[in-house]
Amino acid sequence: MKRVVITGIGIVAPGGIGKEEFWQNITQGHSFTTSDSEMEALGLNSKVVCRVTNFNLADYCTGEEFESLQKQDRFVQFGVVAGQAAIEDAGLVLEQESPESLGIVLSSCTGGTQTAQRQFEVLSDFGQQSLKHKPVGENFYNSGMFNYPASLLARKYGFQGPCASLSTGCAAGLDALGISFGLIQSGEAEVVLTGAAEAPLIGLNYAILDIIGCLSVTECEPEKASRPFDAKRAGFVIGEASAVLVVEEMEHALARGAHIYAEVIGFSSLSSAYHMVELPVHGVVMATVIERSLHMANIAPEDIDYINTHGTSTQQNDLFDTNSFKKAFGEKAYQIPISSTKSMVGHSLSAASMVATVATLGAMELSVIPPTINYEFPDPECDLDYVPNVARHKDVQTAMVTASGFGGIHTAAIFRKYLN
Predict the structure, then answer these.
(1) What SS3 state is found at 296?
(2) How far apart are CA 81 and CA 50, in angstroms?
(3) Taking a C-beta distance cutoff of 8 angstroms, is the pair 286, 405 a contact?
(4) CA-to-CA distance for 43 and 47, rounded, in angstroms?
(5) Rounded CA gap, 246 and 226, in Å?
(6) Domain check: are 139 and 53 in the same one?
(7) Cys staple from 63: which of 19, 49, 70, 275, with CB 3.0 to 4.6 Å?
(8) Which phi-psi region, left, alpha or beta, contains residue 311 (left: φ > 0; alpha: ψ -120 to 50)?
(9) Residue 342 domain-assigned?
(10) DSSP secondary structure string, 126-183?
(11) What is the rounded CA–CA span in Å between residue 236 and residue 217?
(12) Which residues are catalytic?
């Protein structure tokens, strides 16, 4: 099997646009949760979001170079900008590559629901009238195509290898990485652009998640609403983001002198076949996923220096995560630093696990583990080392990222620092 490394990072997130800004903000433990006037107006139980506030498309591209990108849905814009940044960060000279060896695997949960809702509002007078027939243009169609960001990037950069998009719930970003990992291992591709894009901050999505009790109703200041593993946690804070990586066959990366952030050494994904949104609190299925990823990586549990976990700030998820680590690592679980990036930048659905991966690569690159902020009231059932509130300096040689998605999908990936 060929070895797989990460050579490029692109990120658009509440914590920053570009890896340097993002890493700086999360290591400093900044919260990007704010109150939301639309949620308030809708009378929802939850009233907080994590929004990308400083995104100006013109700062990153004209838009015309990607077929009128300025008119596309926000999730498309995020995905294209993050993908472009990852390619530039990797230093790829595409003219020197075989187009058929270049692949793309991206993901999304909600796609262009912002465009869909706004178009409905226009055609129905905000739901007051029956829908009126009116030509709406191709951008409405594009927003509904989950593969549109991947298609735009493929056409712009001449990626003629595998081009896929998937939607496996909130694990989809890490699942996209896993598929890309397999494509390179098997020799089907030499370079794959992989990640997720999500812009779900719209009333339709708020209402769906609010009515099933997922969103944060913690009674506190907005910036403290996301509090993974804390005894007073009461739901996740919905966010938006895109994170995209360049993964590459190791010898190919070395031959062109690329900077290697880490090697991907293990991956596993399983379905609990349990429930659409409920989790079995015993955590057995995630423990199995972890054990399989460790086996693929050919490492022992004690080799893991850090885990960036799903950690959504819901009662059931955080207990599920905790119990899965105890089952997979035994007593060693109490010695592994674990943190949830969602405490700072919220839960961006499919993009969340890739945002967590970028945070993990930063921990490896900078030897600083980001904290789980807003950890104030210990939960006796969640009693592991969650790196509370303050970043921790530590040499991270080998790290794991875990994710869970609606539908019962559970995924883990393992990364190892590449040493010359």
Answers:
(1) helix
(2) 19
(3) no
(4) 9
(5) 30
(6) yes
(7) 70
(8) left
(9) yes
(10) TTTSPPPP----HHHHHHT-TTHHHHHHHHHHT--S-EEEE--GGGHHHHHHHHHHHH
(11) 9
(12) 170, 310, 347
DSSP tag of 51:
-
Q: Which residues span the domain enclosing 382?
A: 266-416
State the DSSP code for 370: P
pLDDT in tens, 121-161: 665 666 677 766 767 667 765 767 778 899 999 999 999 99
Residue in 356, 246, 375 with CA at minimum distance from that of residue 26: 356
Q: pLDDT tens digits, residue range 191-226? A: 999 999 999 999 889 988 998 889 999 889 999 999
pTM of the model: 0.95
Sheet of 48-50: strand order equals 33-35, 48-50, 238-239
Q: State which of 195, 229, 255 marks the end of a domain.
A: 255
C-alpha neighbours within 13 Å on the C-beta side of residue 132: 10
What is the spatial distance between Cα 62 and Cα 69, in angstroms, rounded to a whole number? 8
Same domain, 109 and 136: yes
Does 318 lie in the same domain as 226?
no
